[in-house]
């Protein structure tokens, strides 16, 4: 039976964190839809490290079509969801139509993958309390304040959550997410 996966993102998402899951899941035969606050061509970014700079830099990445607006999505049609990192999570968490989508995947215990800065999208919803999560190192205080356990590993599976630190961890991250999708 074919499975459907939803990518929840928006402008300024990390390019590799949108495109790698999109392509890897399609390669496995899944139908993948991208949803954003509005149905449009979203602008991704590339975060990288430059010598002498203490944090990551940001450059424009590829443009990616959002197939649907969050408000158009029926989450019951999907077997799992991915939330890419970048700066999009701090924006999309403020969209009222995003909240019931995330709540659906948490409450139904369907696989939910989020990496890097994507934990920011879940923080205000209280879903990280008591969970083990990998994330970008600078989010450690945010995860701890939310009642989560920060784990500095390639991939962490905690129930239906699959988390990783960043795009460098994609092989393990997608391997574990696909394993959960397969049941």
Question: Please, could you describe this protein's structure?
Answer:
This protein is α/β, with parallel strands linked by helices and 183 residues long. It has a single domain (4-182), classed as Class I glutamine amidotransferase (GATase) domain (Rossmann fold, 3-Layer(aba) Sandwich). It is 28% helix and 27% strand. It is built from six helices and eleven strands. It has helices spanning 15-27, 88-92, 98-107, 119-122, 140-145, 170-182, and strands at residues 4-8, 31-36, 41-48, 57-65, 68-69, 80-83, 112-115, 132-133, 149-150, 156-158, 161-164. A seven-stranded mixed β-sheet has the order 5-2-1-6-7-11-10, with helices on both faces. Strands 3-4 form a two-stranded antiparallel sheet. Helix 1 (15-27) links the parallel strand 1 (4-8) and strand 2. It is globular, with a radius of gyration of 15 Å. It starts with a strand and ends with a helix. Residues 3-179 form the DJ-1/PfpI domain. InterPro entries: C56_PfpI-like, Class_I_gatase-like, DJ-1/PfpI. This is DJ-1/PfpI/YhbO family deglycase/protease.
